[in-house]
């Protein structure tokens, strides 16, 4: 089966916070991968949180990423909304794949992808 993704993914393991509309608490998550228009997150959620996500079909997320741009350390604070494409459950964990239509997010991912090529 061929990969249907339009953009190459960056594999990551960064702590993130997820927010659901209508739910007052933040959810701790891990960013597992991202591309210019997509994000993958892993978290543990309750049945109530699962229902709210499924109903709204959207989450807001934020995380801090520090990486090298050549020899210089670069830190970005990333915050955006994602439209839920998929939710999978395994061993008490939830894997969320979402589409991100945000120009700042896209610019961040492009900088992150190009960072190894800076001298």
N-C termini distance: 37 Å
Beta-strand residue fraction: over 45%
- Order of strands, main sheet, comes to 1-2-3-6-5-4
Low-confidence stretches: none
Structural shape: elongated
Reading the helices and strands in chain order gives EEEHEEEH
Strand runs, count:
6
- What is the number of helical segments per DSSP (H or I, 4+ residues)? 2
Helix content: 10-25%
Mean pLDDT over all positions: 91
The helix-and-strand class reads alpha+beta
Profile the largest sheet: 6 strands, antiparallel, barrel
Radius of gyration: 15 Å
How would you sum up this structure in a few lines?
This protein has 119 residues and is of the alpha+beta class. The protein has helices at 47-56, 103-114; strands spanning 10-19, 27-35, 38-43, 58-69, 72-90, 93-99.
General description of the model:
The chain is 18% helix and 53% strand. It contains two helices and six strands. The protein has helices spanning 47-56, 103-114, and strands at residues 10-19, 27-35, 38-43, 58-69, 72-90, 93-99. The chain has a six-stranded antiparallel β-barrel with strand order 1-2-3-6-5-4. The longest helix is centred in the C-terminal third of the chain and has 12 residues, at 103-114.
Task: Describe the protein's topology.
Layout: E1 10-19, E2 27-35, E3 38-43, H1 47-56, E4 58-69, E5 72-90, E6 93-99, H2 103-114
Antiparallel strand pairs: 1-2, 1-4, 2-3, 3-6, 4-5, 5-6
